[in-house]
Write a structure and sequence with these properties.
The complex is a heterodimer of chains A (484) and B (301). Chain A is of the alpha+beta class and 484 residues long. Chain A is 49% helix and 11% strand. The chains are: A alpha+beta (484), B mainly alpha (301). At the A-B interface, helix 3, helix 19 and helix 20 of A face helix 13 of B.
Chain lengths: 484, 301
């Protein structure tokens, strides 16, 4: 009896110890990096906010805390590169625009060795080809994961296109049916048609279309889809700029003619001003970043929920077929700094924030302005029902992917783009003719190429040209004449 | 030779010893960056290329002054903004200072209220004015519509001329208070006896201003103008927020152009060279200003 009593006590003690001890062991297993803090750097408060959406999961699963530093967008690249060039970095997790990959790539840790070492799973099959082929690699090695899938799609207010009176008037004036534009010719006709009157049936003075034409790269992104649809390409194989050829000049001449139908102040508009005008029903159509769709569906601010259409950016009709060349803009990627002393923990964080479930939280939230980039984001039932028309919106992005054109991903990409953007605004402000402006931009591009070493740039451009060719983007000198 | 002969007498080294903390601080925060950026301006350091750089002699200076038409244009743009800004700040500042010098009661309060714009940071001032210049919802356009002068859709930054007018207006609003304070101090330092003597000789009103106030205020004016001139050559925050140099490059000032070279093109050496060109320009203008002033004083004497 006494032995039994002792045994019972021993068993109770073991049970109690197990009951007390097990959860601790479980938590330790679930938070293998408890006590670790990593530092991230991003270029806007809303990106910091987007990380905060997944920080609880990062802590629950890994035990890691993330401290995020925000450096404003404009000096971001210079300030981060300045740190990296010192051979050190105060940050472990680094956000950057993949268009600047040639500038950042050498400072980033390749992912493959860590994938093997830590058995990481970045669900690569769930990433669209356009990102896998054009945005993640440096010198052939994967060094980053997408964070914000930036492409341009077109948005329109159905009220403008479906009113019987508008249809009748438009057909009488232009001889074809009013419908969301498929070509740049139709876009320009419709912008002229809608400008200056209440196309929504009110007596308000409304505008023809929205645009962002500020000189710090925005005007360039609004010129580029026309330029490439008319057969343009950045350089030829010898790095001679092709931007001032017939395609570029035609694209800019059309923009100069159409700017009068855009809202006043458009030369200083960045991304959000025209989006606001779209959701407030002041412009009938806009092509812009895909995050616009989430603002369209945000009931707190949008007046066009359920009345908006989504589609691919207009193109040019070439030999009876419409060629679309929408923008693939820099977007945002996340990577691990080569100089980080916490690479393993940061790799685990990168894996978790790129995870289909966690990344969906980020791209679905309208306040983040982060755009969907995984195949599974587009299929997620919650996202497809997030607001009326969300399914159409996500399908429009998927339909756009096969046609997108990337930035000139070369060392000094920022300088090339900024010089061109500046000259485009010179033409839009009517300080230069389109041809003069593009000739000046081409001369500036040559200076940049010479300064950085023509042969070095030529070799890198040759790689990029092949990548672009592999997704169907080639130079067509005859298209500028043919395009309808 | 005795070692003691090499040692400086206490009276000679003591002042340096007391001043040494400040001298070290000045060397670290002022002299070193100046020397480093001057050294950098003769190299080709580019952030996107890497930390390595080569000596390129005066190539950056030659490029800026001969080949970079955009920078040369920015010099003209800066001059176009500086000219009317200085004139208006001087005239309005002088007017306000004269009014204030005649007010007896409440002068400190009114002066403090008028000085508020100068206390606001340029970026905050520019943000406020950007909203006021806003299309449709901006206060200025709405006031203009009430008065029947302009439409609410009037775009203040669409044309080169109007953009410059807008910048000058904001600049004058922001910095006239400084000129007013400097001139008010100058006015208060003019002895009342001179006015009394002038009055006895029949010099009142306009004549008193012309023959007493203005000559005695000239030096203060020159100092005020010189400080504002130096400050205006660094005009950046207002441009960054209000126009970002646009439309086209109409309002790109030298400081803004330098920022773009360094922070957008990552050409740190080139940006350093542009900075030294600006410093050289300001130094030359200041010397000319002082030289003209000295000649005038000598002639007057």
């Amino acid at each position: 009896m006494r032995k039994l009593a002792i045994l019972a006590v021993v068993l109770m003690v073991i049970a109690l110890a197990a009951w007390l001890g097990l959860p601790v062991a479980e938590v330790k297993a679930a938070r293998p990096y408890e006590g670790t803090t990593i530092r991230a750097v991003v270029n806007a408060e809303y990106v910091k906010y987007s990380l905060s959406l997944v920080e609880p999961a990062i802590y629950d699963k890994l035990g890691i805390k993330v401290e995020t530093e925000v450096i404003p967008l404009d000096p971001y690249v210079a300030k981060t590169l300045l740190e990296f060039n010192s051979g050190k970095s105060p940050w472990d997790l680094v956000m950057f625009g993949p268009s600047f990959m040639p500038d950042y790539g050498r400072h980033l840790e390749p992912l493959q060795p860590w994938i093997e070492k830590l058995k990481l799973d970045f669900a690569m099959d769930d990433i669209p080809d356009v990102y896998k082929k054009l945005m993640l690699r440096h010198e052939g090695k994967i060094v980053s994961m997408p964070y914000d899938g930036d492409v341009h799609i077109m948005f329109w207010n159905k009220a403008a296109f479906e009113r019987a009176d508008n249809k009748k008037k438009f057909k009488a004036k232009h001889g074809y049916d009013l419908a969301p534009p498929k070509t740049w010719k139709q876009w320009d006709d419709q912008a002229a048609f809608f400008h200056g009157w209440g196309w929504d049936g009110t007596d308000r003075k409304l505008f023809g279309a929205g645009a962002s034409l500020k000189g710090n790269n925005y005007s360039y992104y609004w010129w580029r889809p026309r330029f490439f649809a008319y057969g343009g390409q950045y350089f030829d194989a010898g790095m001679k700029p092709l931007i001032n050829g017939p395609a570029g000049v035609r694209a800019l001449e059309e923009m100069v003619k159409t700017i009068q139908y855009y809202p006043p102040g458009v030369l200083l508009f960045e991304s959000e001003e025209p989006k606001t005008m779209l959701i407030k029903g002041e412009v009938p159509m806009l092509f812009s970043w895909t995050s616009t769709g989430k603002r369209v569906g945000n009931e707190k601010e949008s007046l066009i929920i359920g009345k908006a259409g989504f589609g691919i950016v207009p193109g040019a009709e070439i030999d009876g077929k419409i060629v679309h060349r929408p923008d693939l803009t820099p977007g945002r990627s996340m990577a691990v700094s080569k100089y980080s002393s916490k690479k393993e923990a940061t790799m685990k964080v990168l894996e978790l924030i790129s995870d289909p479930e966690q990344s969906l939280k980020i791209v679905m939230d309208p306040k983040t302005i982060m755009d969907p980039w995984r195949n599974s984001h587009f299929k997620a039932p919650a996202f497809r029902k997030a607001f009326p028309g969300a399914d159409e919106y996500l399908d429009a992005i998927l339909k756009t992917f096969p046609h997108v054109v990337p930035d000139p991903i070369l060392p000094g990409a920022s300088e090339y783009m900024r010089k061109l953007s500046f000259e485009i605004t010179e033409a839009l402000a009517k300080r230069k003719s389109p041809k003069e402006a593009l000739d000046s931009a081409a001369a500036e591009w040559n200076k940049v190429t010479e300064r950085r070493g023509r042969d070095k740039q030529k070799a890198l451009w040759s790689e990029k040209m092949s990548e672009m060719k592999s997704v169907g983007i080639e130079y067509h000198p005859d298209w500028a004449q043919k395009a309808k | 030779m005795r070692v003691g002969a090499l040692v400086l007498p206490r009276k000679r080294w003591e002042p340096f010893a007391f001043a040494s903390p400040s001298l070290v601080l000045i060397a670290i925060v002022i002299i070193f960056p100046l020397a480093y950026s001057f050294w950098l301006s003769f190299r080709n350091f580019d952030l996107s290329v890497g930390p390595e750089s080569e000596f390129v002699g005066g190539a950056n200076y030659v490029e800026a002054l001969i080949r970079d038409s955009r920078f040369v244009n920015s010099i003209w743009n800066t001059a176009i903004i500086i000219g009317p800004s200085l004139v208006l700040e001087l005239l309005v500042g002088l007017g306000l200072a004269l009014l204030l010098s005649r007010i007896g009661r409440g002068r400190p309060i009114i002066t403090a209220l008028l000085a508020i714009p100068a206390m606001v940071s340029p970026v905050m001032a520019a943000m406020a004015w950007r909203m006021m210049f806003g299309v449709k919802y901006g206060a200025i356009n709405n006031l203009g519509r009430q008065l029947g002068v302009i439409d609410v859709y009037f775009d203040w930054f669409s044309s080169p001329f109007i953009s410059i007018v807008a910048i000058v207006l904001v600049e004058v609003w922001h910095n006239t208070a400084f000129m007013m304070l400097v001139l008010l101090a100058g006015l208060q330092s003019i002895p009342q006896e001179l006015y009394d003597a002038g009055k006895a000789d029949g010099a009142e009103g306009w004549r008193s201003f012309w023959y007493i106030t203005l000559p005695l205020l000239k030096f203060t004016m020159m100092v005020g103008l010189m400080i504002r001139l130096i400050d205006l050559t660094k005009l950046f925050g207002l441009i960054f927020v209000l126009t970002f140099g646009g439309p086209g490059g109409t309002t790109e000032t030298v400081a803004f152009s330098t920022y773009l070279a360094g922070f957008n093109d990552f050409r740190m050496s080139y940006a350093a060279a542009l900075s030294y060109i600006i410093v050289g320009g300001v130094l030359a203008l200041t010397l000319v200003f002082m030289w003209v002033q000295r000649i005038r004083e000598m002639r007057a004497a």
